[in-house]
Specification:
The structure holds 3 protein chains of 3 kinds. Chain A is 78% helix and 1% strand. By secondary structure, chain A is an all-alpha fold. Chain A has one domain. Chain A starts with a helix and ends with a helix. By secondary structure, chain B is an alpha/beta fold. The longest helix of chain B has 18 residues. By secondary structure, chain C is mostly helical. The chains are: A mainly alpha, B alpha/beta, C mainly alpha. The interface between A and C is large, with 36 and 39 residues.
């Protein structure tokens, strides 16, 4: 018991050290991610215009339970999560292809754990910037968000959502052990997250059959659930959303561990 | 003596895809790729005692990297056995990771946009070093490696030599029993190379760290290692103490003499043949005459350098004179030649 | 001229051979890009399922918009695959290679890479047109014109943005953002933009010309719009080429970083 605890606390401390150093390195990319935030501003502006045209400028009408203002804030919340994630899939692919993974394997630190730490370190910093920038656009175009528990619940759910995004991209990046380029797969993953995750359109506005499909996929747990609770809070929903996220995190962790083990095995056999 | 690492008939084969040239070849391999088995490492036996400094030498593609990757647990061998620091690398990789250090010349472990001190901190966590001990250790290494001025500069602003010093210091933080270095001096200038060899040698002396490095620089071997293992086509070609090697193989030098008062190249050749020495002293060969420059190949085992230089200066007025070591390629070619002609272990 | 043409053919052949070198990923990448675009169409299907007509645009119009945008982008990146990477090439000092060869520098840079994903984009554009487009000789001709104009605009805009690297230090990031934004803007109906935004889209950031193509050129042929679109394409292509040439005089080679993180 004690030893397990000791093991976990040591592993946790290593993880935190990675998060810290990733945060610092991200800080060196300040201009880069401010530029990124500009792209978000543009995207949100375009989407705001699109939904503004779709709602014909009517602020009171609710479609699929969403008013124009809620839709725009919903988009801020989903975009902030999506764009916060660093391109970890591409990094893993790069490391697998050029053999850097070999160097990482000679350190007593879990390979996937290392990338998770650096993903979260960078991701959290970007997330805050993106949220602030996106929030400003939304505020200027449709007014302030609904105050209450929503925005507060959104933050922890968004962190879990980021973790889910990490697991999904890492799984794809690790496929580089078998295919020469994973960029295509990664695109598809991104686009699945776009639609089945409800990035650009809340799942409630989709046809019923699709809503049912989405409910069975992990993508909505990464984006839709945090964002919807952010604009339309509901205590019971919060519990359900949270446990769903955790269940997906558990399942995907197993998947990533499995892929990594198989891939590392292949590496050991075939060389870097 | 305690063994640091040992291998028995360690071997590794890869499958590689074959492709014909041109667009048609590409299309063909797209649908029906042809595979070919390639032996990277051919059943090698090594044993290295604790505290030794060993150089693994060989031309590109000889199997150096594959060997080092098997010894660090990254690659699984297809044949044979190995123990490193008492562990089987590919079975107990994580456990082994605490006992060894690795420096891959091309692959930085330092975070590019951050000063080295941040990476050092991370490494202290990764290897679970005691805080107080770590701080003391770090300060000591910083002092010995003379890293003071660079510790707080982002890595991207360091020169290659400065970065390499940080890289090596970082790999000593956790007091590895064995340090594996893959081409540690590649791309560095002479002075920096020398400095790096010096600090590694010092660590080896003070802490008895076993050093196992790959290189294709003869200087690394001569100045840093006590033993050299030459591999070629995946097999061990030669394995012996550097002192012995120096006597046998590193004794060949090239002397280039520029004559001061011979203007006409043709007359130089003539002069050399007529006046210099006849017959040529033992162990000296005329390699080339280029204008006013004469190149001599010297075997120090058979010739006394003092006498040679004395007789040279007596024979002619000399404007310039350089003495060069043979390149590693030359040495390997030489060994390889001996291997072929004798058909066995060179003596 | 024929020397240049032969050179172009030769580089496209080499590109194709090297693209085929990565056997699985060739089909994977092209196919994935196709699927990627299909998923975007799916988003629009969902969107128009809720809001059937938005500012006069319907599902079919947006599909044609995607055919024009992806198709134009596709042929541009298959034949002139380096167009989004000019800033990176300039600022990392990789122009040396091209400068030492006796062929037009810009053309040489542009053609020395073939984007495999671009092939998927192009095929996607053609298939969507066959699916919802007007399959008459006139319709096909107009679509071909639309593809031509949009491809030239993509290249022109990126050459202009990329050439900034001759003058500004961190142009790589800026060019990347321009690239992302420009592509994004060409995939939304121009009808949703009003006022100043609309003016910008038809001048400084000429994404509007690509975006309006399905309406102004293919659905209700508008001579004024067609002329303006061709004019914009010609202008940006010429401006890009001139800017690049002017920049070459300022090119400082060999500032490539020796080490990457």
């Amino acid at each position: 018991m004690n030893r397990t605890y000791g093991y976990i606390s040591v592993a946790g401390r290593k993880q935190l050290a990675v998060v810290r150093i990733a945060l610092r390195q991200q800080w060196a990319y300040k201009t880069d991610f401010l530029l990124r935030a500009c792209l978000l501003l543009l995207l949100l502006y375009v989407l705001g215009q699109l939904y503004g045209a779709a709602y014909a400028g009517d602020y009171d009408r609710a479609i699929g339970g969403f008013t124009l203002r809620q839709v725009v804030w919903y988009l801020v919340f989903t975009e902030a999560i999506t764009m916060a994630g660093p391109p970890v899939g591409a990094r893993i692919e790069e490391e697998v292809k050029n053999g850097d993974i070999a160097v990482r394997l000679t350190r007593p630190l879990s390979y996937v754990g290392f990338h998770y730490g650096s993903y979260m370190g960078e991701g959290v910093l970007r997330f805050i910037v993106l949220l602030v920038a996106g929030g400003m656009v939304a505020w200027l175009t449709v007014g302030p968000p609904a105050l209450g528990y929503g925005p507060i619940a959104y933050l922890p759910l968004a962190l879990l959502g980021l973790t889910l995004s990490f697991l999904m991209t890492a799984a794809v990046g690790l496929c580089a052990f078998w295919v020469e380029e994973t960029r295509g797969l990664e695109f598809v993953l991104q686009k699945l997250t776009f639609t089945a995750g409800g990035l650009l359109i809340p799942i409630d506005l989709m046809p019923e059959w699709l809503q049912r499909v989405c409910a069975w996929l992990p993508f909505q747990a990464a984006l839709y659930l945090p964002a919807r609770l952010g604009v339309r809070f509901d205590g019971q929903e919060l519990l359900r959303a949270c446990s769903l996220q955790l269940a997906w995190i558990a399942a995907l962790s197993l998947l990533v561990a499995f892929i990594f083990r198989r891939g590392a095995g292949k590496l050991h056999v075939n060389g870097g | 003596m305690k063994l640091a690492l040992e291998t028995r008939a360690l071997g590794k084969t890869f499958k590689v895809k074959e492709k014909q040239a041109g667009l048609r070849g590409s299309l063909k391999s797209l649908f029906a790729p042809q595979w070919k088995e390639k032996t990277a490492v051919d059943r090698i036996d090594l044993s290295v005692s604790a505290g030794e400094t060993v150089a693994l030498l060989g031309p590109n593609g000889a199997g150096k990297s594959t060997t080092i990757k098997m010894l660090t647990g990254i690659l699984h061998p297809t044949a044979g056995e190995a123990t490193v620091a008492g562990l089987v690398p590919w079975r107990e990789r994580t456990k082994l990771a605490y006992r060894i250090g690795t420096v891959f010349g091309q692959k930085s472990q330092l975070w590019y946009h951050l000063p080295p001190v941040d990476t050092f901190e991370l490494i202290s966590r990764v290897y679970e070093l005691d805080r107080v001990d770590y701080a003391r250790r770090r300060d000591r290494l910083v002092e010995r490696f003379e890293l003071g001025p660079y510790m707080h500069t982002p890595v991207r602003k360091l020169s290659l030599g400065e970065r390499m010093r940080c890289e090596i210091a970082a790999s000593f933080l956790h007091r590895p029993q064995i340090l594996f270095l893959d081409e540690p001096t590649l791309g560095l200038d002479v002075v920096v190379k020398e400095r790096i060899r010096e600090i590694i040698r010092e660590r080896n002396r003070e802490e008895e760290t076993t050093v196992f490095l790959t290189s294709h620089d003869a200087g690394d071997v001569e100045r840093l290692c006590s033993r050299a293992i030459v591999i070629h086509h995946g097999g061990v070609l030669l394995d012996r103490p550097v002192a012995l090697l120096r006597r046998e193989l590193l004794s060949g030098k090239t002397i280039t003499v520029t004559l001061a008062d011979a203007e006409d190249p043709a007359s130089v050749a003539e002069w050399f043949g007529r006046r210099a020495w006849s017959p040529m002293p033992e162990g000296v060969e005329l390699a080339a005459i280029e204008g006013r420059r004469i190149r001599l190949a010297i075997d120090l085992a058979r010739t006394d350098m003092n006498e040679l230089l004395a007789s040279l200066t007596q024979a002619a007025r000399i404007a310039d004179l350089t003495v060069e070591d043979p390149t590693l390629e030359d040495i390997i070619k030489h060994i390889y030649g001996m291997e072929k002609t004798k058909g066995g272990e060179p003596t | 001229m024929s020397g240049t043409a032969r050179f172009l053919l030769a580089s496209w052949k080499v590109n194709l051979a090297s693209a085929l070198e990565y056997r699985l990923s060739f089909f994977l990448l092209a196919g994935m890009m196709f699927v990627n675009n299909m998923i975007w169409l799916f988003f629009w299907y969902l969107f128009f399922g809720r809001f059937p007509v938005v500012s006069g645009w319907e599902m079919g119009d947006v599909m044609l918009l995607w055919a024009v945008s992806a198709g134009g982008f596709g042929w541009a990146s298959v034949l002139f695959g380096n167009f989004p990477r000019i800033a990176a090439i300039v600022s990392s000092g990789q122009l040396d290679v091209y400068l030492s060869q006796p062929k037009p520098v810009l053309l040489n840079v542009l053609t020395s890479r073939m984007s495999v994903t671009g092939a998927g984009d192009f095929i996607f554009g053609i298939i969507v047109f066959l699916w919802v487009g007007e399959l008459t000789p006139r319709g096909c001709l107009l679509f071909a014109c639309a593809l031509f104009v949009s491809g030239v605009l993509f290249i022109g805009v990126m050459v202009v943005a990329g050439s900034l690297a001759f003058w500004i230090g961190n142009a790589e990031g800026i060019a990347g953002q321009v690239f992302g934004s420009f592509i994004a803007l060409t995939t939304y109906p121009t009808g949703i933009f009003r006022g100043a935004a609309k003016i910008i889209l038809f001048t400084v950031v000429p994404a509007g010309f690509i975006g309006y193509m399905p309406i102004g050129l293919m659905r209700d042929f508008n001579p004024a719009f067609a002329t303006a679109a061709f004019g914009a394409a010609a202008f940006f292509a010429a401006f890009g080429a001139l800017l690049f040439r002017a920049g070459l005089a300022r090119y400082a080679s060999g500032n490539a970083l020796a080490m990457r993180s």
